[in-house]
Structures are given as C-alpha cells and as structure tokens.
Design a protein that fits this description.
3 domains, globular, alpha/beta, five-stranded mixed sheet, 10 helices, single chain
Length: about 325
C-alpha cells in the first residue's frame, strides 16, 4: 500500500537529515510522526519513528546510574559528523590522526581506542567532524554506541585491505548493524523505495591501500558484494584517497557553503556559513540574525549561478560557493 506522504512529512524528513543536534533530530522525528498518514500501510514506518524518538529521548547527554556520563554521546560539530566503525586494528585511528589534530592512539595491538575520540577534518574550507569509535567484534558492541550510530550523519565502516579476511570483515560489520536494525540510506544519501530516510548514510573505507597488491582488492570486493554502502580505498600512510573521502563526505552531508559580505566591504571567505542544500536567502539571513530575516528587503549574489551583484529576492535558492550581500 502506498504511503501517500505529504509535503509536510518530506519537509520534516529534510530537517531530520540536516539536524545538527539531538534536540533538532528529535523535533524533526516528532513532526514526521505527526504528519505521516495513519493507515495500515504506514504502521511499520510509524513504529520505526516511535522507536527512534524513544532512543533519542533516552540517549541524550544524561548521566547514567552512578554519576558517569554516556561515553558514546559526542555532540556533532562542523558541517556534520562521521563515525568510524571497525574491527580491532582496522586503521580507524590512523585516518583520524592523519586528518585531524585529535590525540589518537595508533597501536599494533587491538583495542587501543577505549572511548570515542572526535577530531575536526576539512574538505577545503568545510569542517567535518570525524569520530574514532572503540573497536567492535561480533560478540561485543556497546549499546550506547548503537544509539550514537543511529543518530549520526554518516557511518564509515573501516576495514583493512591487508587482512586476508577483508570480505568477511565487511560482512561482519554489516551483520553487526543488521542484527541491531541499523540500515543505510543509499550510497548517495538517497531515500528508500517509499522516499524515506532509513538510517545514517554509509561508506566502506578500505585502509592500507598502499600495501603491495592492495589496489586490486576493492574492485574484487565490489564484485563479491552488493552496495550500499559504496566503497573507497585510502591510505593514512601516504594520504592516498583521503581527499576523495572528504569530498565524498561533503557531498553526502547535502550542504552548501555560503560567504557573507557587508555592503561596500569584501566578503569573509575564510569562514563560510554551512546551510542545508535548498536553503534560501531568507534562511541565511535568519542564521545570521533572526531580526535580519524580518527586515530583509533584497540581496545581491555572486557566484557561478548568477551574474556578479545580481539582485535577488528572499526566496532565492542559494548554491554552493555563493557570496551574498544582504540589504535590510
């Protein structure tokens, strides 16, 4: 039975995708539940929304019994958050250590990461938070970690191309998630068949691409298993593939960067505003200052999508790398 979803539902789903805090995700999920058509065909989706709402209500930065904080709650920073999940010695820490200033433990022995370690990486001038999670095994996956995984923007499944069991390692990670009802959006962040977001967006990151013979392994993996998630090969040692990985994360976050300028002054090109794709001039003004949005008369735009200084109205849809001059 078709779900016959309303525009209000799709707008709430978009807001969930672009949420930066647990509170924003919770509000969007509650709006999705309010606006989803109530009939037999939507019962499964209603139950899924209720489960996710319940998890978010109980997975916030609350203190657990005994006075200790949830170690797996890492507030998202930057344009979005990507968690790195892998078996012991998969190379997660090496990636985070290469791309961020985080203090990670890169060891030859397993379980060198006892708690999540966040760090800020960059795609050009866009900050993206990477979080090195403690390693998991089929027999040991902390419950709090699963809550964090369900509510992150992107999940990176990290496997070692030097491992003789690399395919089994991929399947083990996917099985760990499937057993806990964690599913992925499509490889480009697409919706499922009903047009719904079904979980974090995902990538399989194959480390140690610089090892002899490793170059052929990713292609073999893609032949032996079906996406999603898609697969990228990287080397924390040489840097191979890391720029492509960061560019892919930026694309999957579905955001744009916009530079603001004051009339008669140069634009600030060092710290762009990060907005959801599809944002308008009015929404940029609201981010800068809520009163600016109510007083806004028009804006001028620079970038590939307009001629320099083109005057636009408040509902003009912005594009990546636009420079905007607001006039109130």
């Amino acid at each position: 039975m078709p779900l016959n979803l309303t525009p209000e539902y799709f707008e709430a789903d978009r807001q969930y995708r672009q949420a930066r805090t647990p509170e924003e995700r919770l509000a969007a999920l509650q709006q999705m539940l309010r606006t989803i058509p109530k009939h037999k065909g939507s019962e499964k989706k209603q139950a899924d929304l209720k489960r996710r709402i319940s998890e978010l209500k109980h997975a916030g930065p609350k203190r657990k019994r005994g006075g200790t904080a949830d170690p797996y709650h890492v507030p998202p920073q930057g344009a979005g958050q990507a968690l790195l999940l892998g078996l012991p010695n998969s190379g997660k820490s090496s990636i985070v250590g290469r791309l961020t200033k985080a203090t990670v433990k890169i060891t030859e022995f397993p379980y060198g990461t006892p708690i999540p370690v966040p760090g800020m990486a960059y795609h050009e001038d866009v900050p993206i938070e990477l979080v090195d999670l403690p390693p998991v095994t089929p027999d040991h996956v902390p419950g709090g970690m699963i809550n964090a995984i369900r509510n992150t923007n992107i999940l990176l499944l990290v496997v070692d191309l030097g491992s003789p069991s690399v395919l089994e390692d991929v399947e083990a990670l996917l099985a760990i998630l499937a057993e806990r009802d964690v599913t992925f959006d499509g490889p480009a962040g697409d919706e499922d068949a009903d047009g719904l977001s079904v979980g974090p967006r995902g990538l399989i990151i194959c480390t140690k691409a610089d090892l002899p013979g490793a170059a052929d392994t990713p292609a073999a993996l893609e032949e032996l298993r079906r996406p999603p998630p898609e697969l990228l090969a990287v080397s924390a040692h040489t840097g191979e593939g890391l720029s492509a990985m960061m560019r892919r994360l930026f694309e999957m976050l579905n955001v744009i960067r916009v530079y603001a300028k004051q009339p008669g002054k140069p634009a600030d090109m060092e710290k762009p505003f990060i907005l959801p794709t599809g944002s308008t001039v009015e929404e940029l003004a609201r981010v800068i200052h809520k009163e600016m949005a109510t007083q806004l008369k028009y804006a001028r735009i620079w970038g590939d999508t307009a001629y320099d200084g083109q005057q636009v109205h408040q509902h003009y849809v912005l594009h990546d790398r636009n420079t905007v001059e607001l006039h109130a």
